[in-house]
Amino acid sequence: MAGNSFGNALVATTFGESHGAALGCVVDGCPAGVDLTVEHIQAQLDRRRPGQNRYQTQRQEGDRARLLSGVYQGRTLGTPIAVLVENTDAKSSDYKGLDDHYRPGHADYTWDQRFGRRAPRGGGRASARETVGRVAAGAIAEAVLAAWATRNHAEPLQIVAWVQQIGTAVAQGPAPAQILPGHTAGYAFDPLTLTREQVDATPLRCPDPQAHAAMQELLEQAQRERDSLGGVVRCAVRGLPAGWGEPVFDKLTGMLGHALLSLPAARGVQFGTGFAAAELRGTVHNDAFLPGFQFASNHHGGVLGGISTGAPLVVDVAFKPAATIPQPQQGGTRAGAVAERTVTGRHDPCVVPRAVPIVEAAVAFVLADALLAANFLPRET
Amino acid sequence: MAGNSFGNALVATTFGESHGAALGCVVDGCPAGVDLTVEHIQAQLDRRRPGQNRYQTQRQEGDRARLLSGVYQGRTLGTPIAVLVENTDAKSSDYKGLDDHYRPGHADYTWDQRFGRRAPRGGGRASARETVGRVAAGAIAEAVLAAWATRNHAEPLQIVAWVQQIGTAVAQGPAPAQILPGHTAGYAFDPLTLTREQVDATPLRCPDPQAHAAMQELLEQAQRERDSLGGVVRCAVRGLPAGWGEPVFDKLTGMLGHALLSLPAARGVQFGTGFAAAELRGTVHNDAFLPGFQFASNHHGGVLGGISTGAPLVVDVAFKPAATIPQPQQGGTRAGAVAERTVTGRHDPCVVPRAVPIVEAAVAFVLADALLAANFLPRET
Amino acid sequence: MAGNSFGNALVATTFGESHGAALGCVVDGCPAGVDLTVEHIQAQLDRRRPGQNRYQTQRQEGDRARLLSGVYQGRTLGTPIAVLVENTDAKSSDYKGLDDHYRPGHADYTWDQRFGRRAPRGGGRASARETVGRVAAGAIAEAVLAAWATRNHAEPLQIVAWVQQIGTAVAQGPAPAQILPGHTAGYAFDPLTLTREQVDATPLRCPDPQAHAAMQELLEQAQRERDSLGGVVRCAVRGLPAGWGEPVFDKLTGMLGHALLSLPAARGVQFGTGFAAAELRGTVHNDAFLPGFQFASNHHGGVLGGISTGAPLVVDVAFKPAATIPQPQQGGTRAGAVAERTVTGRHDPCVVPRAVPIVEAAVAFVLADALLAANFLPRET
Amino acid sequence: MAGNSFGNALVATTFGESHGAALGCVVDGCPAGVDLTVEHIQAQLDRRRPGQNRYQTQRQEGDRARLLSGVYQGRTLGTPIAVLVENTDAKSSDYKGLDDHYRPGHADYTWDQRFGRRAPRGGGRASARETVGRVAAGAIAEAVLAAWATRNHAEPLQIVAWVQQIGTAVAQGPAPAQILPGHTAGYAFDPLTLTREQVDATPLRCPDPQAHAAMQELLEQAQRERDSLGGVVRCAVRGLPAGWGEPVFDKLTGMLGHALLSLPAARGVQFGTGFAAAELRGTVHNDAFLPGFQFASNHHGGVLGGISTGAPLVVDVAFKPAATIPQPQQGGTRAGAVAERTVTGRHDPCVVPRAVPIVEAAVAFVLADALLAANFLPRET
Fold first, then answer.
1. Is position D381 within any domain?
2. Residue in C28, C72, C116 nearest the CB of B4
3. Does residue A378 lie in a domain region?
4. Domain for residue D379, yes or no?
């Protein structure tokens, strides 16, 4: 079976191993006439790229994208868009002897059980480098969303994610139910005006300065102790009109759950008030209508019955602490024995800041897919 | 676009509106030679059926399943299996005047924005009655999983879900990381020996008696105050071998996220330690190997890199409080005004107990799909 | 794997065995607001129904369709449309002892090799009764095409098929390259004005009276000699605008080839001049442009590069002689021996007349799918 | 919508425009442990490559394949296999001024109607260069089929196509119904022993020397008269076991029809006796059983009910005469006028010989997909 494609009307297929020749994606279903350049894709890949600061793996991949097809004179043709990123800084020597070793917290063992073999260098296709293709696909999806805004003379969608939590440090923005126009004042930051530039201006991509300082401290302590930390990325989408999404299986929640819970290291996803809704009563959780299809609260995080409500979409993704840590870990062997081993290689002590553009890409892709599935994109004129 | 089908190798398509002629599903991709009877399907539908106790809607649907195709002399043919459940007790008069009214917390408004029209009676296809088809599909999936066990002379998979939380009352079983052989003693209940019969023996499907009593109290209070409550269903799968699941987009986590977050009223999904993993360090969260591919803990909830580890799969689903409550609620009108209204109709004050077999069905379906996608099912001999 | 669904934007899933409880289909992806009634579906099923004249099987299935979902107050909801036809006149006794016998020209042997088991009565799912679901799906597709015409204030598409050949008798209409406005005069019939009513008015659905007489004679002779005959159905579509169809794999030719060559007994498909194009030169075969995007000839049968040209679509389907004939035939046994046997049961001596509405259904389905895939259908207003 | 992917269990997605940066494919679903090298893919691309003799376009593309992913140490990983071929000899100047000109027999006009824009140079994605990706995918499929033979200790499948007809010259091999062991002696060539090497040894890939000479003569005459010719490719598959293929929509006939009728310039497909079956009676066409599941004839071309019979698969594909011819042709303009124009550029006067490996690739892909869909490939040991 396949499993490397995602989407209904807009379909991304990704390929590539961490230490193979190249990674990339093919996006099929993009309508004709959408403005798209390689620079647009490169910009998102640069935000995902390793080696940007001292909290990240020092692997120095340029991650230069090539746009191989589907675009002519700066506009899409309606044909498949192939994006290629060659691997250049693959230090496979770091992975010597891993063929028969299973690292804890990694997919080594499960992959061997599934396929009988794997590319052991750098985790092969189980590496987070696999998300290069997802980020490129997300950039293409954003171009589709931009075309929608242009063709409808509407405000463009703003998809902005940030680090909401690392370890025990939590950003003090408004609760999801308050991420609504008129409800976000008086917090450490305002998700409804926050820009990607503002997020990127902080090393850990957390817009709450106080929480950011606490996160830095936790992270430095963890690094000193040769350990890693988990966290949560929150993503808010502004400008999403009501009526996007399919009912039943392909609800926005279902498709976003699929896209986000298939990200490397993702362990949970919740919408709006999410798990905390378990403690609420219906009288509270039912977002009351206000005139003009506005709402008094946003407990649903902008999705009702799987379809967008017009309120900001709010989704959280929990990530586990990075599995690779530079101290001895109790792994397994192909023969079923236990083997303690310190794995070298270049890894992030906390994947959460780099996950920010990856989460945005996943959200953008699901929304562009929903847009096209519902035939809401007017044809180019 | 479609959106009413789910699965890769095993594909379920569901159909039907709450107050239409019938609901049902067609399951394609089921191999030949699997033992399957309508009674097996009926048993699961009966567990989902409304009207079982005083905490549930008093709608009295018999929900009698008919097996229309794909089975001959008690065994599947390899052809599509169609299951039909006719609607009999549809009191559409309860929904008079709802054509232009949008109930808060319901999909009325978003559905109209998506499609321009809807079947207003009983929520139409946005009703939780849609899950009749999912439960029937899950029963078929369980028959596939049973065939796997038989043909491999293996222990059958045990997929058991229970109510883990209603309101602030939480069942005190072992934490997900402890749901491992040898770690579950000394708790209010043991998820590794728990049976569906034991779960069903309690009105709220919560195996912790103390928590159950607290839940009953909360629920009765909410009913008195004409309100509703949310909760969490936890599902554990025993006997799942290592190596099931596709990498990249169709990881078990991604597919389960898709299936579970597309359930009506679902607001969050987490695996193993889930959101709490954000606070952990890698040294703790990395489940250390023990000899013979065993693990010292189960923070990953039985899934690593999207593929099963052989440890029990543990997944949580958060459900919001039921949207329909028998008191005035501030809804909207098709014209964009606000309208207060008390919606009648028959609804559960808390959907969580009835969600238990629905969650099991979704999990069973994803696992049977993964089994077939990986070609792990031997042919009938 | 599945294999019982067809289509991209509009997806039909069919189910049912010849002598099982019921047959039917679920069509997903139909937009909201399309006028659809069960009578519309019944009308096409009636044209497919057996027992209409002495050249057809005397099995007396009423083939009454029930519309189970997806339609409310005469218009589609955008949700899956399920259609059910119960089997009533299944004389399974005719098939006693066929479990281990393989009839020549039937799928008995191949089916057993594929699945290891089968429903032997009436061919099970390999029976041509499987096309009940296809015809129902085609009727729904025609409703979508009608909505397109209404919403665009355009002339509705006319999809009309007829029997072009039975045995050596061939209808003398214009060659496909001449099926163009202004080129069809002077022939035995005019495919550009031909209606389904006119076709149905002849017992064998051949609009050329002289050829019809010859076909009747051939067929009666074959019946007398307890034999069967093959033939060709030709289908022409008028009013199909230019620009429908996907390039590359899902060309109109590819999708039609898939739909038509998967019909029971189909052995070949050709477009426009088809196989005879092998003998032509480019100067002849290249349909020259005339002003206003008209063409001087229609060798391409209305499809160029997989996309409609605006000229009538012309496609031929060859059907083999019916496999079941009331005389001893040399079949096989499950053990690999040869067994002569006269199979009883009720069958058409020539399937071609009944194939006419089935071919139309397949063509309608592919065109409606192409319409929706290209987002050419305006939303309901 | 998409439309650039094909297959169920094995899925090929192709990309690339004729004069863009590159062409290629991603094949998903290939099992792990299949022997695969870039040389194997290159060998098939070389057979498709232009410029091999004087009857072909003189465009000198090296068509060097790069294997970007999915293979490690000469064996597949179970991950997507990406193949890239860069365009090097794109003489776009030949296509100056074609933006607003529609060539007859080409997809220029229909493409503009579908998408509103296109890449005019070299036909863009409508060029036959698109088949580069298909041929690479076919080579991967053949590796899967080879793995099947190895793992089952069976004879490998032999998929051999040849030019059966160019213009009026027809190769005099046995009729399809005679392409059966013991029936092929005494003809100009024997399809059951014919090798690709023997086919390639002739300039026009026709194994009947007399017909080959006639084809050469016809082709030279056509070239002198600045014209082009159509033809027929026949493909026979030896060693295909009984039981491959899905019933209903995804019959081998349906899938092959889809793959072959979506090839550039394809106009018809038939199986076994094909269109000529219309003239036959059931007593003749029903291939009688012989002991040991052998057959007395092969009218069905190795497929019954969509599933392989064990007899050689025989399929014909009709190709139209090449649309580009070096003389003035009556095309259209974007404004709807008529414009006579002699299109330069480098093209084959007859595409049929180069279509031989393309047809083989399509057949190989459908068979490997059917193999995997039916779970007939044992896992690597």
1. no
2. C28
3. no
4. no
Provide the pLDDT confidence category of residue B94 given band limits of 50, 70 and 90. Answer: low
CB atoms within 10 A of CB A320: 29
Task: Please say if the pLDDT value at position C344 is more than 70.
Answer: no
Contact list in D for residue C361 (CB cut-off 8 A) is none
pLDDT digits (tens, 9 = 90+) for B20-75: 999 999 999 999 999 999 999 999 999 988 766 666 655 566 889 999 999 999 99
Asked whether residue D142 is assigned to any structural domain, the reply reads: yes
Probe site for chain A from D35, D36, D72, D380 (most A CB atoms < 10 A): D72
Q: How far is it, in rounded angstroms, from Cα A302 to Cα A288?
A: 13
Neighbours of A210 (CB within 10 A): 12
pLDDT band, residue C275 (cuts 50/70/90): very high
List Cα–Cα distances, B61 to A252, B21, B22, C18, in angstroms.
30, 13, 11, 31
The beta-carbon neighbor of C379 closest among A79, A248, A375 is A375
Strands D169-170 and D71-72: unpaired
For residue B119, which residues of chain C lie inside 8 Å, CB to CB?
72, 77, 79
Tell me how many domains chain A contains.
Answer: 1
CB contact under 8 A, D115 and A32: yes
CATH number at residue A109: 3.60.150.10
Strand pairing partners for D158?
D238
Residue from D165, D255, D314, D320 whose CB has the most chain C CBs within 10 Å, to mutate:
D320
Of C31, C375, C379, the CB nearest to A379: C375
Q: Contact C27/C144 with Cβ under 8 angstroms?
A: no
> What domain range is B192 assigned to?
5-373
Does B1 have pLDDT greater than 90? no
- Count Cβ atoms below 10 Å from residue C346 Cβ, excluding itself: 16
Mean of the per-residue pLDDT values of chain A: 93
Neighboring chain B residues of C77 at a CB cutoff of 8 Å: 17, 115, 117-119, 124-125
What value of ipTM does the predicted structure carry? Answer: 0.96
Q: Which tens digit of pLDDT belongs to each residue from B157-175?
A: 999 999 999 999 999 999 9
Q: Is the pLDDT of residue D144 over 70?
A: yes
Task: Compute the half-sphere exposure of residue C64: CA atoms within 13 Å on the CB side of its CA.
Answer: 3
Question: Do the Cβ atoms of C77 and B125 come within 8 Å?
Answer: yes
Chain A environment of C9 (Cβ under 8 Å): 9
**Which residues 6+ apart lie within 8 Å of B362 measured at CB?**
B134, B138, B256, B259, B260, B263
Q: Is B239 exposed, middle or buried (0-12, 13-18, 19+ CB in 10 A)?
A: middle
Strand order in the sheet with C32-35: C32-35, C75-77, C71-72
Residue A344: pLDDT band (50, 70, 90) is low
